[in-house]
């Protein structure tokens, strides 16, 4: 596995970033990460985070942007993206109040419009989904399928997630295969079968400790245009940097 293609999702270290940005980036570098995926500034100025990204020589493996900003702050999104020299941006999570058919249709329309507009200057707009977007449907399509279905040749990129697909009771590889060439960045976290879907304390674990077949996911990704495999750990029982190190080492072993 090429270590340059492994990224850390900064949501994993959201508390650490808020408290001590420099130590956070230093610790990720010490683990071996060469890339990070941004998930907000956690109370800091974007310029401060940019300085640390540059100091520790990280590549930016996409940026997660709050849902409402796609409707109210496109100029701000553009400025932030250009600051970090990253034009691959994701709607990180469709707001709860928009989790219904009308909201999904509205979201798709806005993301398609944004892609059609910003795509002219090299942007890629995508969507990241929690578990219910792999079960809920609009017009007979699951949410990620529906929103990423092209409209007159313009499509939204997918950011499928092994854990949330598993929580939804589906096979990660089968879901990932839908998005060949349309998922430049994918999220990897492991899942232990046999627990309640909402029991994250028990069913979420480091890569290699659970039931997800990451070897098959990587084999698919290497022939399907994946640029970054992004490790996300929502929380840890052993210390978040220990968790990220275990997951990083597992990917490197494949």
Largest sheet: spatial strand order: 8-5-4-3-2-1-12-9
Distance between the termini: 6 Å
Helix count, per DSSP? 12
CATH class, named: Alpha Beta
Give me the CATH fold name.
TIM Barrel
Shape: globular
Please specify the SSE layout and strand pairing:
Blueprint: E1 6-9, H1 14-19, H2 21-31, E2 35-38, H3 46-55, E3 59-65, H4 69-72, H5 74-83, E4 88-91, H6 101-118, E5 124-128, E6 137-138, E7 141-142, H7 143-148, E8 157-159, H8 162-167, H9 172-176, E9 185-188, E10 190-191, H10 200-203, E11 204-205, H11 214-222, E12 228-231, H12 240-253
Parallel strand pairs: 1-2, 1-12, 2-3, 3-4, 4-5, 5-8, 9-12
Antiparallel strand pairs: 6-7, 10-11
What does this protein structure show overall?
The protein has one domain: Alpha-Beta Barrel (TIM Barrel). Helix content is 41%, strand content 17%. It has twelve helices and twelve strands. The N and C termini lie close together (6 Å). The mean pLDDT is 96. GO terms for molecular function: isomerase activity. This is Sugar phosphate isomerase. InterPro entries: IolE/XylAMocC-like, Xyl_isomerase-like_sf. Keywords: Isomerase.
């Amino acid at each position: 596995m090429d270590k340059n293609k492994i990224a850390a999702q900064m949501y994993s270290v959201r508390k650490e970033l808020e408290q001590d940005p420099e130590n956070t980036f230093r610790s990720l570098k010490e683990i071996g990460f060469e890339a990070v995926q941004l998930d907000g500034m956690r109370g800091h100025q974007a310029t401060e985070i940019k300085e640390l990204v540059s100091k520790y020589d990280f590549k930016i493996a996409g940026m997660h942007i709050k849902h409402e900003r796609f409707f109210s702050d496109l100029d701000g999104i553009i400025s932030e993206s250009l600051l970090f020299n990253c034009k691959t941006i994701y709607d990180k999570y469709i707001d709860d109040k928009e989790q219904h058919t009308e909201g999904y249709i509205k979201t798709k329309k806005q993301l398609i419009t944004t892609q059609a507009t910003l795509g002219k200057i090299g942007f890629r707009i995508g969507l990241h989904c929690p578990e219910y977007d792999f079960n809920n449907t609009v017009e007979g399509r699951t949410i990620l399928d529906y929103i990423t279905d092209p409209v007159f040749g313009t499509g939204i990129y997918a950011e499928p997630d092994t854990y949330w697909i598993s929580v939804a009771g589906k096979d990660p590889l089968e879901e990932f295969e839908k998005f060949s060439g349309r998922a430049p960045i994918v999220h990897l976290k492991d899942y232990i079968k046999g627990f309640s879907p909402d029991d994250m304390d028990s069913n979420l674990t480091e890569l290699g400790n659970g039931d997800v077949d990451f070897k098959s996911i990587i084999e698919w990704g290497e022939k399907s245009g994946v640029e970054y495999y992004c490790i996300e750990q929502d929380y840890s029982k052993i210390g978040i940097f220990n968790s990220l190190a275990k997951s990083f080492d597992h990917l490197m072993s494949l």
